[in-house]
Amino acid sequence: MDVRIQSPFIQTNTLQNKPKYTPAQAQDTFKQALSKAIKDVNELQNVSAHKTDLLAKGKIDNLHDVMITGQKASVALQATVEVRNKVVEAYQEIMRMQV
Q1: Is the pLDDT of residue 8 over 70?
Q2: Rounded to the nearest 10 degrees, how much is the dihedral formed by the CA atoms of 11, 13, 17, 21?
Q3: Which residue has better confidence, 20 or 51?
């Protein structure tokens, strides 16, 4: 008796039709996604620094907006650092594997 449990979140027919990438294509896709993520974090940091500078000069009086922007930039940077740490750990684990 063959009993299969199917998740309501995953449709098996869509997974089978997923396009397969060559290693070079996968590397390029990953590189593009990583570059975009780093640029987005950098942009958040720049906006936060700019708003903080304007607040210090008295050109902005909305402290809440400056603080929220700063927190968004901080959280994005912390998340990026944690992802980097996980990637380094995974790389180190792969390098320790014996073939």
Answers
A1: no
A2: 40
A3: 51
Burial of 51 (0-12, 13-18, 19+ CB in 10 A): buried
Rounded Cα distance, 63 and 57, in Å:
13
Question: What pLDDT is attached to residue 26?
Answer: 87
What pTM value is reported for the model? 0.69
Other Cβ atoms closer than 10 A to 5:
4
Rg (CA), the chain: 22
- Token pair of 2 as six digits: 């063959």
Contacts for 72 with CB less than 8 Å, ≥ 6 apart: 44, 48
**Longest pairwise C-alpha distance within the chain:** 75
Backbone angles phi, psi at 11, to 5 degrees: -100, 120
Question: What does the block give as tokens for 52?
Answer: 């903080």
